[in-house]
Amino acid sequence: MNRVDGADDRYVVGVDYGTLSGRALVVRVGDGAELGTAVHEYGDGVISTALPGGRTLPPDWALQNPQDYRDVLRYAVPAAVSAAGVDPAAVVGIGIDFTACTVLPTLADGTPLCETPELRDRPHAWVKLWKHHAAQPHADRINALAHERAEPWIGRYGGKISAEWQYAKGLQILEEDPEVYDRAERFIEAADWIVWQLCGTETRNVCTAGYKGILQDGHYPSEGFLTALNPNFGDFVAKLDGPLLPLGARAGSLTAQAAAWTGLPEGIAVAVGNVDAHVTAASAQAVQPGRLVAIMGTSTCHVVNGAEVAEVAGMCGVVDGGISPGAWGYEAGQSGVGDIFGWFVEHAAPAGVDSHERLTELAASQPVGGHGLIALDWWNGNRSLLVNHDLSGMIVGMTLATRPADIYRALLESTAYGTRMIIEAFVDAGVPVNDLVIAGGLTNNALLMQIYADVTRRPLNIIASAQGPALGSAIHAAVAAGEFPSIHEASQAMGRVHEAVYRPDPERARAYDALYAEYRALHDHFGRGGNDVMLRLRAIRNAAVETAATTHETPLEVVA
User: Fold this and answer.
1) Given phi > 0 = left and psi -120 to 50 = alpha, else beta, which region is 173?
2) Can you tell me the distance from the alpha carbon of 112 to that of 45, in angstroms, rounded to the nearest whole number?
3) What's the rounded Cα separation, in Å, for the pair 462 and 352?
4) Beta strand pairing status for 274-275 and 91-98?
5) What are the residues facing 333 on neighbouring strands?
6) I want to staple 158 with a disulfide (CB 3.0 to 4.6 A). Which of 37, 43, 314, 492 is the partner?
7) d(CA 295, CA 476)
């Protein structure tokens, strides 16, 4: 055994910060047994239409309240320990993971700018959630300049920086509210900020620094590049740079204040922060090259380790040690998956079939291709391979005979096609993808899982934990606490996966090959310049909304 003797009676806590809530999980160090869990819903959720004080937000904004993150520590962690029935004194470490890129501007001591009274009604002072897509024009400028200057790092990100990442969001703040930008002494990922709250020490994790902060080979983008974007942007790296630590390292010790919040012992190990998708590789026993982990929830993030560095078109990035030490970690993603299915059930499915269960039941009875539809999975933009959040969804082939279950199945299939596009991009660039491990809430949908196996032509393994990210954070906490020498040993001892639960059916896979070819044709036509109608429609919508907000127009009343 690689763990120390007597580890069975020691425990760690993993905290997974999601889009709408935070979950705490108590895990036994010796075997990874999950003993207790609790969830705390964010009080303000996703702030997308107006600030809590009432100020209206423009289109494509998504903010959050950092107090909601502290409340997860105050409520979910003690509740999880209580549910586990363990002595808090036996807890030796805590680790967290977060959505990304979720960032916030703060003062030098870590105080969020939105918590300063004079800036509370300024939207740019708040946390920008990963799904904040209003910085797309700024991302476009960053990408254009990077290619114009032949910046060496742009290829490591598939040729495009996302509107979701640190630089686009930071540039948006500078150009839309320079006072907030100037007041921001630190610009920090929420993953690192909550670790700062736990241990009182500011750190930066190599994962978000690499994937979201454009840190490659020890260097950020140059001051010359930043000032070419905007003369006042040259100090941005100084705002986001900080003590950089590898994954699994100890960021510090739990402070007395954080101990009072959580009910955990003061002084226990606090692990370096991590991203929800990347941390799941450890709980899925997927830290070795070739096994891709797809964390499927509201969106999907795809992560896979490779033995060598390669540039993969349309990827979110490749980072040395970005998933686990000793390998090159690759990331890709889809900005909408579960959100798409949820949108259809909530807003489009008629009464009587307005549930996932009923629609899945009806869709499962269809043969492959029986609905005659192809959908594009861009209802929340495209993260990979096109890296354009102004793109939108599409369904082709509808007739008067089309029924809700047809559309629902087409939406399920569209996300599988998007994942296949990502896998093929990896393989074409020389990054092997041998099989898939699926994690997240969507693993409960057997139809969806079989569709993914058939479309990708690869076996699907299912993570044995319903709380993959939280378990992964707990595994990193065990390493930070010194219970294991590395993430690899901790993953082997504490992670769990059910092997080859779904296998591709040759006949269905052949049928999906034909449909996938049609998906690719639509993907390239509408996503790669064949027809920019989606971008034009987005611009028309934004202009209409902004005009209406300025003139206080109200919708016309229909006279019967």
Assistant:
1) alpha
2) 17
3) 31
4) parallel
5) 301
6) 314
7) 18
Contact 49, 238 (CB under 8 A): no
Does residue 211 contact residue 100 with C-beta atoms inside 8 Å? Answer: yes
Pairwise CA distance, residues 203 & 422, whole Å:
32
Instruction: Read off the tokens for 398.
Output: 């509808």
Q: What's the rounded Cα separation, in Å, for the pair 512 and 179? A: 53
Backbone angles phi, psi at 500, to 5 degrees: 45, 50
**11-43 residue pLDDT tens:** 999 999 999 999 999 999 999 999 999 999 999
3-class DSSP assignment, residue 129:
coil
- Looking from the CA of 194 toward its CB, the CA atoms found within 13 Å total 32
What are the tens digits of pLDDT across the range 350-386? 999 999 999 999 999 999 999 999 999 999 999 999 9
Q: Which 8-state DSSP code applies to residue 344?
A: I
Question: Helix 506-527 to helix 404-428 angle, to the nearest 10 degrees?
Answer: 80
Determine the 3-state secondary structure of 405 from DSSP. helix
User: What is the spatial distance between Cα 496 and Cα 217, in angstroms, rounded to a whole number?
Assistant: 33
Q: Show the 3-state SS of 182-239.
A: HHCCEEEEHHHHHHHHHHCCCCEEHHHHHHCCCCECCECCCHHHHHHHCCCCCCHHHH
Query: What is the Cα Rg of the chain in Å?
Result: 23
Asked if pLDDT for residue 167 goes beyond 90, the answer is yes
Q: Could you tell me if 91 and 113 are in contact, meaning their C-beta atoms sit under 8 angstroms apart?
A: no
Tell me the per-residue pLDDT of 117-166, one tens digit each, with 9 for 90 and over.
Answer: 999 999 999 999 999 999 999 999 999 999 999 999 999 999 999 999 99
Nearest-angstrom CA–CA distance, 89 and 10: 9
Distance CA 55, CA 64 (A): 14
